[in-house]
Amino acid sequence: MAHSNPKLAEVDPVWAQITDEARTAITAEPLLGGLVHGSVLHHKKLEAALAYRFSQKLASPEMSEQILREIADEAYAVEPWLGEAARADIVAVYDRDPACDRFIQPVLFFKGFQAIQAYRIGHWLWHQGRKDMAYFVQMRTSEAFGVDIHPAAKIGKGIMIDHAHSIVIGETAVVGDNVSMLHSVTLGGTGKEHDDRHPKIENGVLIGAGAKVLGNIIVGHCSRIAAGSVVLEAVPPMKTVAGVPAKIVGEAGCAQPSISMDQILGRKS
Predict the structure, then answer these.
(1) b/e map of 208-236 (b: 16 or more CB within 10 Å)?
(2) pLDDT for position 252
(3) CATH number of the domain at 153-268, please?
(4) pLDDT digits 0-9 by tens, 76-134
């Protein structure tokens, strides 16, 4: 696609692509003009658009759009990594989800992407010492998107959560870069202890639908967890585990399972 703003494309190709797609979307479906203008074309950069979407989706009688917008604008202004991570997430969704054929789709329509961006603002608030506001963002994210991520959890960039229904990620969980997971995944604890009690998911891991990973265990890089599995023990790097409880059933099948998204056991990608 030839960008309508070549200079913007050089500086920020992701945002340039989104704005070009926005104009095309309005031409194809004029009834979405208000949504697309308000969410994309009214803004000069991706961070402003994301702050607007955050405030629109999480506002409630308890917290106005204006207050939430101010919180998000401040977060994006003082923490550049938030915008960097969002761009990586957009590209990850586009690359890995066959239902996504435009960069604009996650920004407008995909609750997995939107929930992760909301979590990131909650995480920023948590580390600013504003824990009650972070809990509010967690609560509203869960109510709006069905995704419950504790604001203290640590999540990298290039994250793709497909469908994103009933995702639960606990307080001391760690998720690395370029991780893909499907709906109904739980990264949970195994008891009432207050110390480090949640899983550590390394880079490039693919977690299938309905999988439960429980306890302070490490899931090694570029491994696969089959759908419906219950993982209670550490997973070595580049292995596939399946079952209840999960056991090693083979190699990961490829170098980057979270990118290939191949979930068929016993088949090489």
Answers:
(1) bbbbbbbbbbbbbbbbbbbbebbbeeebe
(2) 83
(3) 2.160.10.10
(4) 999 999 999 999 999 999 999 999 999 999 999 999 999 999 999 999 999 999 999 99
Please tell me whether the overall predicted TM-score, pTM, comes out greater than 0.90 for this model. yes
CATH number, domain 11-146: 1.10.3130.10
Q: Which residues share a beta bridge with 247? A: 242
Q: In Å, what is the CA distance from 170 to each residue of 9, 109, 132?
A: 38, 25, 17
Domain spans of the chain?
11-146, 153-268
Average pLDDT, the chain: 93
* Residues forming a β-bridge with 206: 180, 224
User: Please, how many CA atoms are within 13 Å of residue 116, restricted to the half-sphere of its CB?
Assistant: 30
How far apart (Å, rounded) are the C-alpha atoms in residues 105 and 112? Answer: 11
Q: Tell me how far the alpha carbon of residue 98 is from its chain's centroid.
A: 16
